[in-house]
Amino acid sequence: MDRIVIVGHSIAGVTCGDTLRRRGFDGDLTYVGAEDVPAYPRPSLSKAALHPDPVDIAPLPTFAVATEILGHRAVALEPEAVLLDDGRALPYDGLVIATGSRARRLTDSPREYTLRSLADAEALRARLLERPRVTVIGGGPLGMEVASGAVGLGCEVTLLNPGTPLARHLGPLLGGILASLAAEAGVRILDTVVGSVTETAEGMAVTLPSGEVLESDIVFTGIGDDPEVDWLSSSGLLVDGRLIVDTRQRVLGHPGIVAAGDVCWLDDPAGPRRSPVWTSALEQGRVAADGLLLGDDAPERDHPFYFWTDQWGVSLKVSGTPPREDVAPVVVKGSVDERSFVIHWPGHGAAAALDMRMPVPRLHKLAASRG
């Protein structure tokens, strides 16, 4: 293998490139990045967008000697060549697909905001500093972080989500605590889906299935993302529109091609699944490099799920997946009533620390313990 092209210039792609070099690959290495800036940590986008003062996001450290083609997108994949939007064809004998995902939108209005890039963060911050009325659609991690930051900047916020915010991601206990903190901060939380979203002369109107119309100056939409695979539509790599990888991040049925990060689906006995979080992209980048170089001799993906968020004045770390049903955890330290604790769900492979210092390795060890 002499020429490896990495399409995607965020944490999964950069980690894969660094790992390739560390493993001894000394051939030509080329990154292709859609944004015309050095790779940066995307979790910092919410901090940059929601802070009253400008926040500089430091580039990701990289140790790989490589050619960088930034500000250009891959538009198609041919056998042994990546086609770019400027007409260039990049030959390869090893390919890493790490193009990430794009935020889902409900309108084409400039008054609807999402958060996936530096440009998104700058635009959102500039608008929030004007203290608009904000409707947040989606009570997942990003929607709740944006709601928290908007309140902190003096905005009036309404949040729409079917069910308790974050409960689908973190279970009823943790989701309920964070939702209570949001309500106490003045957020109006409505348990509902959205009927339609339209732009008006004054702002945005969100119509609910009940017929109620919510008016605000802007809408922030945090309802998930879609993998960036359009450029692969005629490549033969997709299965029912999905880019599926095995436990070594190899694209099924296509030797010499691996994928990592938000773009891919992980093959699983229960069916393909995605893991669109920062720590998963990091681990997948490492595994993909080994899978490309070592094939069947590469170690399989085996990293515990890890998630963290800062919102409503508290910090939450989670290892593993908390039970979706209402299962009482074991309190290891602190108090659930006081919203400061380390807790563990024996038998579920999950643990969490809220507003309490807990090194991540210790949290993983606690999650894996049975007692």
Query: Structural class given helices, strands, pairing?
Result: alpha/beta
Strand order of the largest sheet: 3-2-1-7-19
The biggest sheet, with number of strands, parallel, antiparallel or mixed sense and barrel status, is: 5 strands, parallel
Stretches where pLDDT falls below 50 for ≥5 residues? none
Q: Assess the beta-strand content as a share of residues.
A: 25-35%
Please give the count of helices.
7
Q: Please give the number of β-strands.
A: 25
Terminal-residue CA separation = 47 Å
Overall average residue pLDDT: 94
Which helices and strands occur, and which strands form pairs?
Elements (H helix, E strand, L loop, with lengths): L2 E5 L3 H12 L5 E6 L10 H7 L16 E4 L3 E5 L2 E4 L4 E3 L2 E4 L3 E3 L8 E2 L4 H11 L4 E5 L3 H12 L3 E6 L5 H18 L3 E4 L4 E4 L4 E4 L5 E4 L1 E4 L3 E3 L16 E2 L11 E3 L5 E2 L11 H17 L11 E6 L2 E6 L10 E6 L4 E6 L4 E5 L5 H9 L3
Parallel strand pairs: 1-2, 1-7, 2-3, 7-19, 9-16, 10-11, 10-16, 11-12, 18-20
Antiparallel strand pairs: 4-5, 5-6, 8-17, 13-14, 14-15, 21-22, 22-25, 23-24, 24-25
Helix pairs in contact: 1-6, 2-3, 2-4
Task: Summarize the structure in words.
It comes from Corynebacterium pollutisoli. Its cofactor is FAD. With 371 residues, the protein is of the alpha/beta class. It folds into 3 domains: 3-102 and 225-297, FAD/NAD(P)-binding domain (3-Layer(bba) Sandwich), CATH 3.50.50; 105-221, FAD/NAD(P)-binding domain (3-Layer(bba) Sandwich), CATH 3.50.50; 313-368, no CATH class. The chain has helices at residues 11-22, 44-50, 118-128, 141-152, 167-184, 278-294, 360-368, and strands at 3-7, 28-33, 67-70, 74-78, 81-84, 89-91, 94-97, 101-103, 112-113, 133-137, 156-161, 188-191, 196-199, 204-207, 213-216, 218-221, 225-227, 244-245, 257-259, 265-266, 306-311, 314-319, 330-335, 340-345, 350-354. A 5-stranded parallel beta sheet has the order 3-2-1-7-19, with helices on one face. A 5-stranded parallel beta sheet has the order 9-16-10-11-12. It has a 5-stranded antiparallel beta sheet with strand order 21-22-25-24-23. Helix 2 runs parallel beside helix 3. The chain is globular and about 60 Å long. The N and C termini lie far apart (47 Å). The mean pLDDT is 94.
